[in-house]
Write a structure and sequence with these properties.
Largest sheet: 15 strands, mixed
Strand content: 35-45%
Structural class: mainly beta
Shape: elongated
Helix content: under 10%
Number of strands: 65
Number of helices: 5
Length: 864
């Protein structure tokens, strides 16, 4: 019967709507009851107070002087509070009829909450109107135990114990069109808290909250910021008050229209696990003191400048106005279906802007649009790169962005920024570090073409050596170099360097190349490698030489798989002109023992190619023989081209190297009976190409000993000057007796020889010496002059500018014999039948002792 009575009471109250107001002591009367009309009851208050009558152990009927009657749960049973515009914080908040007036008071009334110290309980607050906080300039401000003010909360604040069993749910009962760009209805709080505030007071401020907090159906308008997450009550943003497990759903916000306001949503302090769904926020791009690109201008600011970054943030179905999403520092974020609206007149910031993307960041962006964002071309998504190498950075993944993308990213079905014809950037997507799909184009890097071992066009001269016998270590005495290893194409052109002691050294692919770059020149280097340990160990820097300054560096950034061949490359744009030397180098040691093949080193002079073309070249270049002339097509080093047949022009097809109608004759000039006929390597008959009668040019070698030794008496075979002359000595060994000239720095000696009448072409020099030193460098020079024998010239001609022999770095073996070479020495003014005067001198070097020269070999060319 009791349950029937309760049900009848509810039916009468909720549907019959007949409540009798009485005076005097609280009372409850039954007027009439029948099965058709239900029970009519009266519930009245005493002296204007709210009446409460117990129905059973878990439910109560309450009445107010205004005639409101509610069946309510027992206090703390369901953890629910109600807030109404017509409510009072003196009410119990357990029903709409006895609602509170502020969210602040409702949170304190939830289970676990208290007024002293002011503490938010756990449960749900339904908000149909009223205020966020009863005090002016305050809002929904909740702090956790790590906030410096937790022990004695400042005015306006509520504490949260961050107990694992807690959770706070603030739900608006919509009655207002949300803004900006509304697509969800919300509740707009009244004053004094949360609206029309000034002085930097946000409507919602969460500091060190780790319990789940869900805020939905609410609009915050006014204050310098609408929402603030992760900042301590004392302003600290370094990470002490990181907040997490926060959901804003169907929430809108905007700040005051002043130069000091903004951003609308401010997330900082290493906060994470934050969801913004059906979210709207108004930025301050028009009025912000710092302009449209300042932090204040953002609709949503994710600020990691003073901390290690904020992540695990999800923004979905968001409408923004006069500001976008600005991410400072490292982040992990998902952004889906976001639009930024402008006012047609003022320039707006990007919809999404990463101000400092790094390889530790992660982002997925889909369906981003911008509308009416002003006249200055602005990318829809902008990624600023913290590395000088955009290709290395990776960038976010972007899908279906309706406007331009600037910076490194993986882009699918979105417009590259270059569609604006350079108004923002004239860099191609590849040079920006982008890869992906645009219309019918695919942008990215692949080794597929390089792995085909195809013929390669020589666009620039390769300065690296293909010959592994010329590859050297900067620490030769502690390095083992193994050559003849299998290369990526089945040949034996690879070499491996192993450092046999702790520490690192440089593995150089041939002698260094000396030059003076111009500003804007590009240096491009690369090779095939296994076991290199990544791009960081590839360089063009020669040990002890100094590498030119470069303001832009690109590299392949391929993944590290040490059990497979990878082609590594780097490109440097020179920013300072200074003499230097370069070579393709690999740093090795401390567990790194790389195997190298096919090095390339190119110098691309400024203006030869655009920067875009340089990167296209670098990402697609392949190994080529260093002997391949510019403008030709060559095979890869160590891999000869094998043909089964060949046709020259429209001639007959050759199917063998000789003896058929397709045989080819080659000549450097018109064939004549006096020219000697010979055969090339393939057996084709060709005309000898020399300039002599027979068309043959052959090398002729002559050797000049520096000194002779008669028993123990040494005599110079070269002419010595009155000063700065080398000493003469005999070297008597167990098996050898020889004379030498012993050069100190700046010493010199001379000799002469006649040039033959059929002499032609260049002269090469080869100097033989030994040194008792076991460290340091030895540098010699050679200078020449020529005097006619016709009686027309005084035999005292000034020497040509001296040439420098190859620098020799001594090793641990004392008195080891060395040779140093110089091809094509300076012979300006020399003609056949002249007398060639040769001067050998020692330059300033680092070997401490005199260096003993045994003799000089000259290679001359003669024409027959």
């Amino acid at each position: 019967m009791k349950k029937i009575l309760v049900l009848a009471c509810l039916v009468a109250i909720l549907f019959a709507g007949k409540v009798h107001a009485q005076t005097g002591a609280p009372g409850f009367s039954e007027d009439n009851f029948n099965s058709a009309s239900g029970l009519q009851i009266g519930l009245w208050a005493a002296g204007g107070a709210v009446s409460t009558i117990k129905v059973d152990s878990g439910h109560f009927l309450t009445g107010s002087p205004q005639g409101n009657v509610q069946l309510k749960p027992k206090v703390n049973t369901d953890a629910i509070q109600y807030v109404s515009k017509s409510g009072s914080d003196a009410n119990d908040g357990l029903s709409w009829g006895t609602a509170k007036n502020s969210i602040f008071a409702a949170l304190q009334a939830l289970p676990g909450g208290s007024t002293s110290p002011p503490t938010a309980g756990r449960g749900t607050v339904y908000f149909g109107g009223g205020v966020t906080h009863p005090k002016p300039l305050c809002g929904i401000w909740i702090m956790g135990p790590r906030d410096p003010g937790y022990a004695n909360p400042p005015s306006c604040w509520l504490r949260s114990t961050n107990n694992a069993a807690m959770g706070i749910n603030i739900v608006g009962v919509p009655n207002f069109q949300g803004a900006p760009n509304p697509h969800a209805v919300t509740v707009l709080p009244d004053k004094p808290g949360g609206k029309g505030t000034t002085g930097g007071s946000p409507g919602i401020w969460l500091s060190d909250t780790t319990v789940p907090i869900n805020i939905s159906g609410l609009t915050i308008s006014g204050g310098d910021r609408a929402f603030l997450v992760g900042q301590c009550s004392n302003g600290d943003r370094a990470g002490v008050c990181a907040s997490n497990n926060i959901v804003f759903s169907g929430v809108n916000g905007s700040g005051n229209n002043s130069s000091a306001s903004g951003p609308c949503m401010d997330i900082t302090g290493q906060s994470y696990w934050i969801w913004l769904r059906d979210f709207g926020c108004g930025g301050n791009a028009v009025l912000a003191t710092g302009g449209r690109l300042s932090n204040q201008a953002a609709a949503i600011l994710i600020d990691g400048a003073a901390n290690q970054g904020n992540g695990l943030i999800n923004i979905k179905d968001a409408n923004l106005a006069a500001g976008g999403i600005k991410i400072v520092g490292t982040t992990d974020i998902i952004i889906d279906n976001v639009i930024e609206e402008g006012d047609f007149t003022h320039d707006m910031p990007p919809v999404v802007w990463f101000t400092g993307w790094s390889t530790t960041s992660s982002a997925m962006i889909t369906h981003v649009e911008a509308a009416d964002i002003g006249r200055t071309p602005t990318p829809c998504i902008r990624i600023d790169n913290t590395s000088s190498n955009p290709i290395q950075s990776g960038g976010p993944v972007i899908l279906n962005a309706g406007c331009g993308v600037l910076g490194p990213a993986t882009v699918l079905n979105s417009t590259p920024i270059s569609f604006l014809n350079g108004a923002i950037s004239n860099a191609t997507p590849l040079r920006q570090g982008q890869l992906g799909f645009w219309a019918n184009s695919i942008v990215g890097q692949t080794d597929v073409a390089r792995r085909n071992d195809a013929l390669v066009a020589s666009r620039f001269l390769n300065k690296a050596s293909s010959n592994t016998a010329t590859w050297i270590s900067s620490d030769p005495s502690n390095t083992t170099i193994k050559t003849g290893l299998t290369d990526p194409f089945g040949g034996a052109g690879a070499a491996k360097a192993t450092h046999n002691v702790a520490g690192t050294a440089n593995f150089s692919t041939g002698p260094s190349f000396s030059f003076t770059p111009s500003v804007g020149d590009w240096i491009v280097v690369g090779f095939w490698e296994m076991g290199l340990g990544g791009d960081a160990n590839l360089s063009a820097n020669v040990f002890g030489c100094g590498f030119p300054a470069a303001n832009v560096i690109y590299q392949d950034n391929s993944y590290l798989f040490e059990d497979r061949w990878s082609f590594r490359w780097k490109a440097f744009k020179v920013s300072v002109s200074a003499s230097t030397c370069i070579q393709a180098n690999a740093q090795f040691g401390n567990g790194i023992a790389p195997t190298i093949y096919g090095p390339v080193l190119y110098v691309i002079p400024n203006g030869t190619l655009s920067d875009n073309e340089v990167i296209d070249f670098a990402t697609s270049m392949a190994s080529t023989d260093s002997a391949c002339p510019v403008g030709t097509i060559c095979n890869i080093a160590g891999h000869p081209v094998q043909l089964t047949s060949l046709a020259i022009g429209r001639g007959n097809q050759m199917t063998s190297v000789s003896g058929n109608s397709g045989q080819v004759a080659q000549s450097s000039g018109t064939l004549s009976q006096t020219k000697l006929k010979t055969a090339d390597a393939n057996g084709n008959i060709v005309n000898a190409g020399g300039s002599g009668t027979l068309g043959i040019t052959f090398p002729s070698k002559t050797y000049a000993s520096s000194a002779i030794c008669n028993n123990s008496a040494a005599t110079s075979a070269w002419n010595l000057p009155p000063s700065a002359a080398p000493t003469v000595s005999c070297r008597t060994g167990t098996n050898i007796q020889e004379g030498t000239l012993n050069f100190a720095d700046a010493d010199s000696a001379q000799f002469s020889l006649p040039l033959a009448s059929d002499w032609t072409g260049a002269i090469d020099a080869r100097l033989i010496f030994f040194s008792r030193d076991t460290r340091g460098t030895v540098i010699f020079q050679i200078a020449t002059s020529c005097t006619a024998t016709s009686g027309s010239t005084v035999d005292d001609i000034a020497f040509n500018t001296a040439d420098v022999f190859t620098t020799i770095t001594l090793n641990a073996t004392a008195n080891a014999q060395w040779e140093t070479n110089k091809t094509s020495i300076n012979i300006t003014g020399c003609s056949p039948l002249n007398t060639l005067q040769v001067k050998i001198s020692r330059a300033k070097d680092t070997a401490s002792s005199r260096v003993s020269v045994k003799g000089l070999e000259l290679t001359l060319r003669r024409a027959l």
